[in-house]
Amino acid sequence: MTTPRTPTGAAVLRASVTSSLTAAVLEELAEVGYARASMESVARRAGSGKSALYRRWPSKLEMVLAAVAELSVPAGPAPDTGSLRGDLLALVQQVVGWLGDPVVSRILPDLTAEAARTPELAEAVARTIGRPRREHGAAVLRRAAERGEVRADVDEDLALDLLGALVHWRLVVRRAGVEEGYAERVADLADRALRAPAP
Q1: Which pTM was predicted?
Q2: Taking the domains of the chain in order of start, what are their residue ranges?
Q3: Which of 14, 131, 144, 172 shows the smallest number of beta carbons within 10 Å?
Q4: Which CATH class is domain 84-194?
């Protein structure tokens, strides 16, 4: 009687290998950008064979999106501190932490520029990064609206732009640092813009 053969190849996708490949993808993007990145160079960087990549991702686009999606939204539910100002502060701190990450801050501008030239990439980035992050913020606004803290005429889409745009402009476009109290000031500004008037 023969002993069953241990699965190999496509049957086994070890999490540790996937994790090291994902790290290599992010390093590659940060160093050379999307256009110059290749599955071959990622495999070399990870000290792995190309087959390990192709078993996980059929194309460079899918590989990049899977890696970048790891950086997309915080694990767990959106902030729920019980108050609009507290939730806004938590959201701003998350965005500051995300955009302030050395890897994200190098990758995101390049992906944004490349997405303007590549519609397929633009849609994929919106699906894996943009929409999940906006839904995270929308959950906060909807809970605040249920508590009566947000004005009835608030444009949710515009409010979400406000929360992200200030931090994005400062960290990604201006490349300016974030001093102590910055997140609190942004949260206070957003709170004043969105809060319903007292009865």
Answers
A1: 0.79
A2: 9-69, 84-194
A3: 14
A4: mainly alpha
